[in-house]
Write a structure and sequence with these properties.
This protein has about 200 residues and is α+β, with helices and mostly antiparallel strands. The protein is built from 10 helices and 4 strands. The two termini are about 20 Å apart.
């Protein structure tokens, strides 16, 4: 059975614009997915990337245009300048880690709920009430926001170390069980082809 390790940040706009495509591809190929939220700014610092605020103006202008175009192509609500970005991605990441461990809900829906809250609904995904609401909406116990704090913090840190070790450098980033790597929302089609044996 194919497996995908999915490295991402809940505050990444490109993770939001991926929508449910990863789950669609995984279901198509009967592949399992391990969700690995991480500190994206830490990943940039460790792998030669640059935080958006420190990028050249031409790069930021292009990014703005690309994000808006991408959202329009997908008919997804999108706010280029959300009220709560940047924010602390740790609380939502810990909740995702705890939910994945607990099971019983829809983890893909939970991830999308957090990214949508940030990039389309002007909600602060570091806020406890928002975290609990997203957990509940995806079929998880909202109390995971409390119980998963310690283990979530440890796993969150280890996800970053694993990403660096395995060659990930941005989000969303997909690594298959045989170490094929795919970076970016627009490479989900390549992942699909690869899992089909056509690439």
């Amino acid at each position: 059975m194919a497996h995908i390790d999915y490295f991402f940040s809940p505050m990444s706009p490109y993770t939001y614009l991926l929508g449910g495509d990863l789950e669609t591809v995984a279901d198509k190929h009967n592949a399992t997915v391990t969700y690995k939220p991480l500190d994206i700014m830490g990943l940039f610092a460790r792998t030669g990337g640059t935080a958006p605020k420190d990028r050249h103006a031409s790069r930021m202008e292009y990014r703005a245009q690309d994000l808006v175009r991408s959202a329009k192509k997908r008919a997804m609500a999108f706010n280029l300048k959300p009220a709560f970005s940047p924010t602390n991605p740790a609380p939502s990441s810990y909740a995702i880690i705890a939910a994945q461990s607990a099971g019983g809900g829809d983890i893909g829906a939970l991830v999308h709920s957090f990214t949508r809250a940030c990039w389309a609904e002007d909600k602060d995904i570091a806020d406890d009430a928002v975290v609990r609401a997203c957990l509940k909406a995806a079929g998880f116990d909202p109390a995971l926001a409390d119980s998963g704090l310690l283990s979530g913090a440890d796993t969150y840190a280890s996800n970053l170390e694993e990403a660096v070790r395995r060659g990930a450098f941005g989000a969303p980033f997909f690594i298959t069980g045989d170490d094929a790597r795919f970076w970016g929302r627009d490479r989900i089609t390549d992942l699909d082809l690869y899992l089909a044996g056509d690439l």
